[in-house]
Amino acid sequence: MSLIEVFLLALIQGLTEFLPISSSAHLILPSQLLGWIDQGMGFDVAVHVGSLLAVCLYFRKEIGDMVVAWYATLTPNKEDDAALTAEEKLNGRLAWWIVFATIPAGAFGFFGADFIEENLRSALVIAITTIAFGLLLGFADIKAKQNVSLEQFTFKKAMIIGFAQAIAIIPGTSRSGITMTAGLMLGLSRENAARFSFLMSIPAIAMAGGYLTLKLVMGNEVVDWTAMGIGALLSFVSAYACIHYFLILVNKIGMMPFVIYRLVLGGVLLWFVTQ
Asked: Do residues 54 and 236 lie in contact, with contact meaning Cβ atoms separated by under 8 Å?
């Protein structure tokens, strides 16, 4: 890989991992449109690590609070439970919800990843899913009531988002996009839907990175450590900035800019594959 390819692909991963526009689609597209060789599993592992470190660092306080609250639920005690604040109880529930809501994505990934890799990583599939799930995101952003707080959220609704996340193994769907869409349809505000999506991304990215790492270790691919290092760093910086500014702007600009982007991108891809 050239240095330009490393920079562009790492920035693409970092910026699109948490925007509702599909990181997998954007990582596949350069090879489809520009004739670049596939970046390889080593580079994919590196950029996933960078994105994972970014989201963990940004939400370090929330993660710490949820881990402590989750641990408290493992050793139930009536006196301790009564002493917990409403926020601590909510954090404990959120931790359990994220754990269970991650199971569908793990199962879909385990049983379907190879099939997806062999049959659905194409510009045509990306074009269709980019448009279809973009329209769904736009519908949710306009029509959803967005009147449910996290305190009113339920385990059932968290699992619905979990199953929505599992669909994101199809390239072009966008993990963050489909989970935010589901969150909006279930009544969460844009900011809460985004926050819940970002927190759910932690085990999801960790599983994806672990799977790619396992394939890398078991394979015979030559690792470009320089490209991996630069890729991880750039992915980390761009992902951290993306999370920060998206949460600031999402309530002001809504989802429509991303919907329009998806429709334009999908249209361009459809034109490309039909030539």
From this structure: yes
pLDDT single digits (tens) 116-165: 877 777 888 888 999 999 999 999 999 888 888 888 889 999 999 999 99
**Region of 252 on the Ramachandran plot (φ > 0 left; ψ -120 to 50 alpha; else beta):** alpha
**How many H-runs (helices) and E-runs (strands) does the chain carry?**
12, 0
Is residue 71, in this structure, part of any structural domain at all? yes
In a domain, 218, yes or no: yes
3-state secondary structure (DSSP) of residue 130: helix
In a domain, 246, yes or no: yes
CA–CA distance, 219 with 213 (Å, rounded to integer): 10
- All residues at 6 or more sequence positions from 202 whose CB lies less than 8 Å from its CB, including other chains: 52, 55, 56, 59, 63, 98
- pTM given for the model: 0.89
Q: Contact, 59 vs 198, CB < 8 A?
A: yes
Query: Quick check: is 267 in a domain?
Result: no
Count of Cβ atoms closer than 10 Å to residue 7 Cβ: 14
Domain hosting residue 98, numbered range: 3-123+143-254
- The number of beta carbons lying within 10 Å of the beta carbon of residue 76 is 8
CA separation, residue 31 to residues 24, 27, 153 (Å): 12, 8, 41
**Number of folded domains that form the chain:** 1
How many angstroms separate the CA atoms of 67 and 99, rounded?
11
- Rounded Cα distance between 248 and 51, Å, is 19
Q: Which helix (H) or strand (E) element contains residue 101?
A: helix 86-119
